[in-house]
Design brief:
heterodimer, A: Transcription Regulator spoIIAA, four-stranded mixed β-sheet, two-stranded parallel ribbon, 6 strands, globular, B: 23 helices, about 45% helix
Chain lengths: ~100, ~700
Amino acid sequence: MAVTIERKADFHILVFSAELSIFSVRDDFDSLKTLSQEAVSQLMIDLSHVQDFDSAGLQLLLYLRQQLQSEQPLRWLGLDNPVISKVLTLFRLDLTAMEA
Amino acid sequence: MMDMAQAEQIFIEEAQDLLQVMETCLLDIEGGDATPADHIAAIFRAAHTIKGSAGLFGFNTVVGFTHSVESVLDKVRDNKLQMDAVLVGLLLDCQQHMAQMIAALSDPGQVVNAAQGTFLLEQLGTYLQAPKDPTPAPVTVPPAAADAWRIDVAYGLDVFRDGMDPVSQLSYLSTIGTLEEVGLQYQFPADFDPESCYLHLQLQLKTSAGKQKIEDVFEFIQESSQVQIQPPLTVVEQLEHTPLQPEKLGQLLVDAGAVTPRELEQVLELQKQQTHSSVGELLVQQGAVPTAVVEAAVNRQAHQEHKRASDFQVLKVEARKLDHLIKLIGEMVTAGSANEVLISQTNNEQLQEAFSSITHLIEQIRDGALSLRMVQIGESFSRLKRIVRDVSRELGKDVELDVVGAETELDKSMVEKLSDPLMHIVRNALDHGIEPVDIRTYRGKPAQGRLKLAAYHEAGAVVIEIQDDGAGLDASRIRAKAEEKGLISSEQALSQEDIYRLIFEPGFSTAAQVTNLSGRGVGMDVVKRNIEELRGQILIDSELGKGTRFRIRLPLTLAIIDGFEVTVGDTHLVLPVNMIQECLEFEHAELVEDRNYLNLRGDVLPFVRLRQLFQLPQPPASRENIVVVQYGRSRAGLVVDTLNGELQAVIKPLAPIFRSTHGISGSTILGSGDVGFILDIPQLIEYACSTESAR
């Protein structure tokens, strides 16, 4: 199942499913295209349900951060998910940091 | 003061040496044994020196031609021109033309092909007008880390789709060492495709694992991505502590773990296109190693490089002076032996001990002086390389030349006398041995023929082998031809080897077609005579359809040998020590009546009674001894009276009166002042074996 977009108050929450890998990134990416048609004031990315995470998944997150952070501040949920934190630690990455 | 004629002669000799250097270097490049970068300096220097010296003497044609050659070489040296196979071929032709011009200076009979000269100048001109090659954009290589491996992976677009995951690679690397300075870079295009990989990973890894282990992590992405793994600078320290190595640079770096065999192979492949670049330069350019590591490896190679340089930088000594020195040392050896005899009679132990150290020094001086005359046989082999190249082209045959043991040393005078026989055998092998491509293909052989030149030491002798994988010798055809020429009768029984040896008979030739290379039936008899004049032996092995091997066995030196003195009656005889296997008491009781062989621990040993052979009048001693000698694969016994022990024998040529005496190769003055005859062991073994087998 691909990423779902939940709308709560003035938040758009991107909830990634258990799979965030090469097997899901195409569908995730296609689902996220709808965001561009909406007015988004605050954006939250929820990774707490992710169980399978690979480099393709990481790359999609980096892409999202690059594309979206300029428009609105990003908030992250589930960065303490061991599946996610393990990969971020390996690459010495901090998704909450602003990209240069 | 030196007159002009003398100076000109020195110029000619030097130019010939320089042309030899040029030829050797060019053939090495053509054969893939060296890169242009390895030899361009030596080739350029040769041409430059010839041009400069020729100008001093006003040899303007030599200067003009060499100037064009030098200009082309200069462009190669400056990386403005690539030295490809075509250019190497052209430069070899130019070298040959220069050799003709130089030879014509001392020999007015030598014809210089002017048309060829003009043609070559035109060819050189095309290179001089050629536009500058575009210089490839330099690759930015990050500096090497002090004690960590630097890994740089620019992932290819298809990495994810190919099922590869950088996370897994990084995760594995973290298990074999400590990850440091990990950095992930990315540049997403406007048409971002989530299944394409845009990642670029850089990191440092502190690990005790070798480069191969690290490279294996990226094995499956080597094709699709750019992976650079640079060793830490600690490899430099390791290299500095390794002993000097004779290996090539690439192999040295592989052995040090700084480069993997795959990287080396890749660079060698790349070098075929970028012939002006050295392996070291390409490895740095590819990011496989930092410059410092290559420099350290080059320093470890210093010995090899130094050796190579010294090939071209020698101290010239007049042969006359060297011969005089060796003659004096010969006299010293003889005088030393005489003193040794006298001292041994005094029973003065102190004097004997003191003298034994002088004897030891004399031996060292002797060996040192003889080694001055020793040259590597590679000098002769490189001339043969040129012949193989030119002759195989002329005959339209594809022949690969394999040279083994070019560093084997031999007395210079022998190398000179060997030159013609070797050339003749090689020409014969190319002309008659190795078949044309269509016949080889028809016979199921590889289209490319193989010719192997090998030299090695074996039991105090030097063996030179010339082996081809051609048609082999046809014993029945040789026999038929020999009968037709009246060399043998049809009833005569001959072994296969005896039949092969018929090719050494004067006027013998089986070649159906006489070419301008060989087949005139002159030569092989001269080959055998030349080899025998060097106290050598030539043997033939051949298999019809498979090929032929000529084995030339030569003594190490012609001047002084370690000998073993024996006596028969009052005649003193000397045997070369390295041919003696053992000495036994000669037991008459165990002999088969009327036959000259005995049972030596289960083997048949033919023997020669030297008293009978040399017709010495004295009756045999009550106890006789037999000296078992070996030469090559044959051995025989020599029956003598007494065994007197070892000595150094200075070989003196035989007076003409003794030349017809078989079994004696020279004479020497013994310590006692007596004359000793040096036995010709190969001839005696052949005599013993053939006499017994004939019976």
